[in-house]
Amino acid sequence: MIEGNGHARAGDFTSERVLGHSVSRLGSDVLTLMELQTELLQVDLKQWMSGFVRSMIAITIGLVLALASLPVLIAAFGYFLNEVAGLSMAASMLIAGLSGVVIAAAVVGVGIWLLKREKGMLHRFKTELRHNVRWLKHVLSRPTTAAHSEV
Q1: Does the structure show a pLDDT above 90 at 84?
Q2: 104: which of 40, 66, 69, 113 fits an S-S bond (Cβ 3.0–4.6 Å)?
Q3: Cα distances (angstroms) measured from residue 132 to each of 24, 56, 129
């Protein structure tokens, strides 16, 4: 700042240097946090994809097995009921068909359960991002306190 006689006060240059240093440091810290958040996002996405892929594999295997083996099993179970229980062929086949649907639903249910279990996706990334934003707000709202504690 300029005094009445046209000369700058010595304390103003020091304040400007401290402010410049603080802004420079804050910028560096923000860039570092952005880099770390990006790395954490990559790790979380990779981990989530691993769980997602396992869930999809379980659902797919269950559906493929159900589609491939259920017609044969249903027919065999229907004939078995017809012979052993003395039911009509229609009733035997209906019971056998419903049994196949229940088994398929159970396998798909296990796959869906595995998929829902992974709903904590990006939890670490979100937690760290919240923490970093809180820190940044704190530093920006109290620049003198942060500058004195770190300089």
Answers
A1: yes
A2: 66
A3: 18, 34, 5
